[in-house]
Each structure stands twice: as structure tokens, then as C-alpha cells.
Amino acid sequence: MATLFSDNFNRADSDAPGGNWVELGLADYDILTNRIRSVADAGESNCLNTSSLGTANYECEARHVFASVGEPGLLGRASDASNFYLFQKSDTALVFKLWKKVAGTYTELGSYSENILDVVLKLSMNGSTIKAFVGGTERISVTDTSLTAEGDFGMYSYNAVAQLHEWDDYFVYDFAAAATGPPVGSLALLGVGR
Q1: How far apart are CA 27 and CA 188, in angstroms?
Q2: Longest dimension (CA), the chain
Q3: Which of 3.40.50.460, 3.40.50.1370, 3.50.50.60, 2.60.120.560 would CATH assign to domain 3-173?
Q4: For strand 3-7 and strand 43-49, is the pairing parallel, antiparallel, or unpaired?
Q5: What are the domain boundaries of the chain?
Q6: pLDDT tens sequence across 44-56
Q7: Which residue, 45, 53, 104, 109, could crosslink 25 as a Cys pair with Cβ 3.0–4.6 Å?
Q8: How many CA atoms lie within 13 A of 117 on its CB side?
């Protein structure tokens, strides 16, 4: 697959994410020690990247490194804060869930349970086929036609209390040949269990 976007967050510590990343909701995304960190109050916060991909068919993946509590995730085909696909990891229930949010309403599309901490997540959107991967292995696949436009990609977090999440090595791929980034799931899984 061809790489459309990548960010390893290897830049100076900053109170802003830099690049084309845009904080939404209660978000406070910072660069700290070559990672992007979300520090948010109770509620939902997003950080979208507005780089134009030129296609609605793409895969986004990133390594979720750390969470104090909460439910981090990857966003795709996001037109705004009320319309997107979300692949979410629950750090308390040990469950991964695939959602769509349309006109502000969430609908769960599928789920998968695994006890794993540091992991590469991937959200794949190719036409009406929406898939979610954990550590490079496909775990959820559905057909959905609710969100068909290119949209933005990004990161998501939610919890009932203040929280902290860290991400690293964000890649977006299209479905062409000749990958220029690491293969899906190639990033190290540094910890298992909670």
C-alpha cells in the first residue's frame, strides 16, 4: 500500500500538536518526548488532521502507547465532530469497538476482546467495507454506507474523568501498491496485560 501521510511526532516538545493537526472538543494534544499526548478533562476530545488525501478509501494506523484511563481510538472519514468512523480501545473493559457516528449519534458496528496494552491499531475504509485491526490482525469487518466522503483522520479520547493518552507513529495508506511505510502491525508490541 502506498503511504499518503506519516507522522512520528519527532519534534520539539510543544503545547500544540503542530503540522495539520487540529484539536476539537475538550482536547489538549501536546508533543512530549517525541510522542503526541492527549490530556483532556472529562468528556470527548478529538484531534483531526486536515491534510488532503484525495481519496475516501484509506487505512489509518497508529501505535497506542499509554493510557492512564479512558477510551482512546482512531478516527476516519471525519467531516466534523458529529460524523466519523471510530475504532476505539477501552482500557478498563479490555474491549475494542468499531463505531460510526452520524449526525451526532453513535452506532456500534462490532467489537473484539483482548487483554493487551501497547498496541498498533488500524482502521480500514475501502468503499462500504470497514475493518478494524489489532496488532496487524483483522478483528472486525462490516459493510456500511453511512460515511462515503474522504473526510479527515485523527485520534479520539473519552472518559468520565480527566485522562491521559499517548500515541506514536501515525500512518495513512491508500490501496495502491508499493508501500513506503512499515507493514501493518510491524511496530513493536511492548507490553501485554493490565
Answers
A1: 27
A2: 43
A3: 2.60.120.560
A4: unpaired
A5: 3-173
A6: 888 999 999 999 9
A7: 45
A8: 10
DSSP string computed for the chain: --EEEEE---S--BSS--TTEEEEET--EEEETTEEEEEE-SEEEEEEE----S-S-EEEEEEEEEESSS--EEEEEEEETTEEEEEEEETTTTEEEEEEEETTEEEEEEEEE---SBEEEEEEEETTEEEEEETTEEEEEEE--S--S--EEEEEEEESS-EEEEEEEEEEE-SSS---SPPTT-S---B---
Indicate the residue type of 193.
G
pTM of the model: 0.87
CA–CA dist 108, 96 (Å, integer): 11
Q: How far is CA 132 from CA 74, 160, 162, in A?
A: 10, 25, 27
User: For 73-95, what is each residue's pLDDT tens digit?
Assistant: 999 999 998 999 999 988 666 89
The amino acid at 115: N
Q: Would you say the C-alpha torsion 176, 177, 178, 182 has a positive or negative sign?
A: positive
d(C-alpha 96, C-alpha 184), whole Å: 18
For 181, counting Cβ atoms within 10 Å of its Cβ (0-12 exposed, 13-18 middle, 19+ buried), the class is middle
Copy the grid coordinates of residue 54: 484525495
